[in-house]
Design brief:
CATH topology of the largest domain: Rossmann fold
CATH class of the largest domain: Alpha Beta
Helix content: 40-55%
CATH superfamily of the largest domain: Glycogen Phosphorylase B
Largest sheet: 7 strands, mixed
Distance between the termini: 7 Å
Structural class: alpha/beta
CATH architecture of the largest domain: 3-Layer(aba) Sandwich
Strand content: 5-15%
Number of helices: 18
Length: 428
């Protein structure tokens, strides 16, 4: 059987969006045929894979500054339990938090510095080489990022081991920005990395057809669009016209929290029974939490595990999706379809979305007619939109369209069948 090495910033996960996407795609393979190299302090879930190697920015800084050769660790379930406490300790460390904010921030010059530090360290350590020799992969599955070092790491693996790569692309970091010198310099370097790795690539998996069309012009290859996929829910839900309980459970970064705040402000200005509950895996700053809790109709409730999320969805009337209207955030999300969209469609619940109509996630909801969509961030128009949504007598068409689209585009079995056949045809 073909052995697949997964390389990504985030570990495999049951809840975190990037890790969850990879897990759903590759869960059709045996655990023993999968291993993952990842680059954060996060703890993986072990449902799909049990073999993990982690290299973090802390490891690289120790090597770069102190010449520490002990780069990276094998991550086991036993180690993960200990690591949860270790991670809490790191987050209380002022120096670590300072470095983390600099390295993980979207500030372009810090991305360049992070790449420089990694590229001038011994990231391909003896410990990592022993681990990968033992696993002996036949192919790499790489979830791409905005960092050149990740591309160069994968390229080195491919060259040293004489193997090929499949690239999954979930976010667009290859579009230039107007009047942003450092950002455009990073894009230039990243395009060169993508072009070089494309020589060793047999399949590119973009997250939307918009991204596929855009990337295919730059990097001709074999493409297959893979949005997040789910186990198709064919259960018929009893529908009513209640819209009192709104639920948002997702990423609040990239300006999304501001859209939720504006929605809460609009709800607060009218007579309504609507309550908005907000949850996210990664907690925002206290300042953002205070803004989200400013109006009585909206409350932030931290994070939910898988079982808690399922229960909250069942208790909700409406599931909320938002995208930022700011130019800088729109630039990053333009070609991406949120991993949450298929899950919302598969829930059997009503969908209410707010975002600009040139973002793939919003375009997709509009095109498929699977939810009520507002393409405005103006208070008066949001108020009118809420009133219009309140007066809809039947939501059956939305729910019916959701089931049709999930069956056609997001059924995990169809995606897995394609990936498995591709791997068998090309690497066995």
């Amino acid at each position: 059987m073909t052995k697949i090495l997964i390389v990504s910033h985030n570990p495999l996960s049951n809840s975190q969006s990037n890790g969850k996407t990879i897990s759903s795609i590759l869960s059709c393979f045996k655990k023993t045929d999968l291993a993952q190299l990842y680059f954060t302090l996060d703890v993986p879930d072990y449902d799909v894979c049990e073999n993990f190697f982690r290299i973090t920015d802390v490891d690289i800084l120790k090597n770069f500054l102190l010449m520490n050769k002990n780069v990276g660790n094998i991550i086991t379930e036993k180690y993960s339990l200990k690591n949860k406490e270790e991670k809490k300790g790191y987050h209380k460390n002022l120096f670590y938090n300072f470095i983390r904010k600099l390295f993980v921030s979207k500030i372009s010059i810090m991305t360049s510095i992070r790449d420089f530090v990694w590229q001038n360290s011994d990231f391909y350590s003896k410990k990592f080489e022993e681990w990968i020799d033992k696993f002996n992969p036949d192919v790499v599955f790489f979830q791409s990022s905005n960092c050149c070092f990740a591309f160069e790491f994968v390229l080195k693996i491919c060259k040293k081991r004489g193997i090929r790569v499949m690239i999954e692309t979930t976010d667009d970091y290859l579009s230039y920005k107007k009047l942003n010198l450092f950002y455009n310099y990073n894009v230039y370097k990243l395009r060169r990395c993508y072009k070089e790795l494309n020589k060793y690539c047999d399949l590119i998996l973009p997250i939307s057809d918009d991204m596929k069309e855009y990337y295919q012009r730059m990097f001709p290859n074999n493409y297959y669009t893979v949005m997040n996929s789910v186990t198709f829910n064919n259960k018929k839900n009893e529908q009513d016209n209640k819209i009192d309980k709104f639920l948002y459970a997702g990423n609040l970064a990239l300006g999304r929290w501001k859209v939720i705040y504006n929605l809460a402000k609009a709800v607060n200005s009218i007579e309504s029974n609507i309550k908005i509950e907000v949850y996210s895996i990664d907690p925002p700053s206290q300042k953002i939490i205070n803004k989200l809790n400013e109006f009585e109709c909206c409350k932030y409730g931290y994070s939910l595990n898988k079982e808690e999320l399922t229960k909250k969805i069942e208790e909700s009337d409406v599931l909320l999706h938002v995208e930022s209207f700011s130019k800088s955030n729109r630039h990053l999300t333009k070609y991406s379809i949120s991993t949450k969209i298929p899950e919302l469609m598969n829930s059997g619940k009503k969908i209410f979305a707010i975002g600009p109509n040139d973002i793939s996630s919003i375009k997709y909801l509009l095109k498929t007619k699977t939810g009520f969509v507002l393409c405005t961030n103006k208070n008066k128009e949001i108020v009118n939109g809420i009133k219009e949504f309140s007066n809809i007598n039947k939501f059956d068409d939305y729910i019916s369209n959701c089931k049709k689209i999930v069956s056609e585009n997001h059924d995990i079995k169809k995606v897995q069948k394609y990936i498995k056949k591709f791997v068998e045809d090309n690497y066995e």
